[in-house]
Amino acid sequence: MSDTRRRVKVYTLNEDRQWDDRGTGHVSSTFVERLKGISLLVRAESDGSLLLESKISPNTAYQKQQDTLIVWSEADNYDLALSFQEKAGCDEIWEKICQVQGKDPTLDITQDPIDESEEERFEEIPETSHLVELPPCELSRLEEIADLVTSVLSSPIRREKLALALMSEGYIKKLLGLFRVCEDLDNREGLHHLYEIVRGVLFLNKAALFEVMFSDDCIMDVVGCLEYDPALVQPKRHREFLTKTAKFKEVIPITDSELRQKIHQTYRVQYIQDIILPTPSVFEENFLSTLTSFIFFNKVEIVSMLQEDEKFLTEVFAQLTDEATEDCKRRELVNFVKEFCAFSQTLQPQNRDAFFKTLANLGILPALEIVMGMDDLQVRAAATDIFSYLVEFSPSMVREFVMQEPQQTDDDVLLINVVIKQMICDSDPELGGAVQLMGLLRTLIDPENMLASTNKTEKTEFLSFFYKYCMHVLTAPLLANTAHDNNSKDLQEGSTKIKPVCPDNFQTAQLLALILELLTFCVEHHTYHIKTYIMNKDLLRRVLVLMNSKHTFLALCALRFMRRIIGLKDEYYNRYIIKGNLFEPVINALLDNGTRYNLLNSAIIELFEFIKVEDVKSLIAHIVDNFYKALESIEYVQTFKGLKGRYEQEKDRQSQRLRYRRDARPLDEDEELWFNDDDDDDDGEAVEKSRMEEELSDSYGKYMEAKKGAANGSNGANNGKAAVIPPASPALTPNNSSTSSVKTVALPATPAVKTAMVGLVDYPDDEDEEEDEEEEEQSPRKRPRLSS
Q: Which parts of the sequence belong to the Serine/threonine-protein phosphatase 4 regulatory subunit 3-like central domain (predicted)?
């Protein structure tokens, strides 16, 4: 398995005509009994699992491309490719395939792909029509050649035949020689024919032809042919752009000539596909699939070669962070890394993972920390793009780096604070960079993408870090623009290093709206940390100052922030709002808006409607008590009348409860503890058991004495009223006897009875039912437990 000649990557072509990497392994060709023939086997180098098992069929068309690729189709719309690390290994497997099929290994294609419909057409059309015979490559025959190339595009079989003919006779180089002659003679007709010929050859979609056309000695002539589009009055100047305008900059000298040639080739082929060739029609969209694959594999190869050259990348990052590096040189270095990361997007996930880990090991994040703080706008923009690639790939990797940074005395050097400063100081009037950075910050502080499985403390640790070292930087512009006193503590803490700006400035309003959007996100996802911060900084009061902004979108952002807080239905927040009288700016905004029916009006009414529907009692009472007079005139919605109705209903319930309890005497300390205890909480019951039994026994004896006296008529002073149950102890004597002619006692339940509370017991020796009835009328039943 250590033989690098047989080391390959397995690719399959997906529905979007993009190559998917299926893994890296080692290929062999052996006889497989189950498949009854010689087969290609690829076993993964990581675990030895089988990545590919494909029988070499005698009728399958195999193609060798770029000396290290073998491509074939096994079924309809299922294309496979093996990308070899070394040319020698590709040649060995190619010879084995050709040996099984009985073909000449010097050819780059083993079969002519023919589907069933083409086979039927083959039987119907005379044999001679399939023998593509190329006219002599002469100036006088260019029109004939152009007609031939154009005519074969509709037939897959004839395209294959023409491609073979063009390859076998070295025809491409002869045509390009004629191009130079026509251009010297200014033969426009011949140049127009050559445009049709070269365009048609590209549409043959054959990698073997691309290898010839895109070689160093041919590609500029191919571009030259494509300049002479017959539909244009004047030819385009593509070669002039590629040779003079587009400059290849080596930020660090590339010593590998093969790598340099591959970079040049890829750029020029990409230019041909994106700029020169017209957008293919629906019928032509598959004609250039091989061209797309050609570019894809080139990019993969470039990234791999650069990634393996550790000296090159190490030098790049060393110069990038060196203070002595000139600004123009640093700009080129940052742009190189940006292009490098953009190329990596063509890689498959596992390859991209290895790519970014390599960059992380080389110190990409410390380098970004330096370059993002520089004054050069181009450098900062490129660094922001690189940072976005890293955050999108792995937010956890960025968070881990941030938390491992040494805690400096100045928080400004922290990477996240550098990012926040870039967002705040964006000079773009539309704040395009600030919007991008805000999205990246939201990704970093989103608990949803924090790895709970591998590191359960990541969320807690990172959020604690963020609120301790970064939140004050984020809120500094907000606090600065809502401060009534410029010498206030918050202003000093948060904005000493940020230039205060005019609150009415449109760009500032946009920035504050972005900050509020991020804070609103925090309210929704960071329950504890943001709550503590809001309470300590009195943040909601400062935010609601923006309800007075002349920019309605900013007032709506402030209102949305409050709406998210109220939507949590958290009583801590509710008490904070009530204590600070924080509905006042919202109601003032509603009244100032007048009769205008706009988004602000609807949003404020929705806020109060939510409070009404959810029956948030504390807020309803506060609103009605303090603001109903100002709101009762609003009748086009029933929201405020509904709030008043909810308030009255709750008031009635409270008064009924008070009436029910008005005769109840105050409870002493022992009874308070007993009533407030949970039903299922029996702690302390054993300790109190003996005392309760004694009190009940004493109470029961006095009760029986009074009852017997009443039965014998000896208690005439009671005027026929039932005997009053004396309290179990002097401490239980009620102090509201002046308001009630009948004193009541709430007896605790006896230990022998399991129920939490019982009424008076009908004892067996109680024979006088009428007296019992009178007693029940004068001694109301005990009220339920306070905790129920």
A: 144-649
Residue 49 backbone phi and psi in degrees, to 5:
-70, 160
d(C-alpha 585, C-alpha 730), whole Å: 56
3-state secondary structure 248-317: CCCCCCCCCHHHHHHHHHHHHHHHHHHHHCCCCCCCCCCCCHHHHHHHHHHHHHHHHHHHHCHHHHHHHH
Question: Up-side HSE of residue 526: CA atoms within 13 Å toward CB?
Answer: 26
What pLDDT shows up at residue 673? 56
Comparison of pLDDT for 15 and 432, the residue scoring more: 432
Calpha distance 546→527 (Å, rounded): 23
- Cβ partners under 8 Å of residue 81, min gap 6: 10, 11, 12, 13, 19, 69, 70, 71, 72, 293
* CA–CA distance, 568 with 573 (Å, rounded to integer): 9
Average pLDDT on 151-163 reads 84
430: tokens are: 């539309």
HEC string of 729-748 equals: CHHHCCCCHHHCCCCCCCCC
pLDDT on residue 760: 38
pLDDT, average across residues 280-285: 56
Give the three-class secondary structure for 217. coil
Bridge partners of residue 82, in order along the sequence: 10, 70
C-alpha–C-alpha distance, residues 436 and 711, integer Å: 92
3-state secondary structure (DSSP) of residue 639: helix
On whether the CB atoms of residues 176 and 198 are closer than 8 A, the answer is no
d(CA 707, CA 679): 33
Query: Which phi and psi angles does 373 have, rounded to 5°?
Result: -95, 5
pLDDT digits (tens, 9 = 90+) for 756-766: 444 434 444 44
For residue 550, how many C-alpha atoms fall within 13 Å in the half-sphere facing its CB?
Answer: 6
Q: What share of the chain is helix, strand, coil (3-state, %, to 5)?
A: 60, 5, 35
DSSP state for residue 139 in the 8-state scheme? G
For residue 755, what pLDDT band results from cuts at 50, 70 and 90?
Answer: very low
The residues that bridge with 41 in the sheet, in sequence order, are 28, 53
- Alpha-carbon distances of 13 from 16, 81, 101, rounded to whole Å: 8, 8, 24
Residue given tokens 């498959």 in the structure block: 348
d(CA 567, CA 584): 18
Residues 6+ positions from 771 with CB-CB distance below 8 Å: 707, 710, 711, 722
Q: Is the dihedral of CA 745, 750, 755, 756 positive or negative?
A: positive
pLDDT tens, 649-671? 988 888 888 776 655 555 555 55
Interatomic CA distance for residues 537 and 535, integer angstroms: 6
Q: What are phi and psi of 25, to 5 degrees?
A: -165, -160
Would the pTM count as exceeding 0.85? no
Distance CA 475, CA 420 (A): 10
* 68-82, 347-361, 526-540: range with lowest mean pLDDT: 68-82
Burial (Cβ within 10 Å: 0-12, 13-18, ≥19) of residue 64: buried
More reliable by pLDDT, 96 or 288: 96
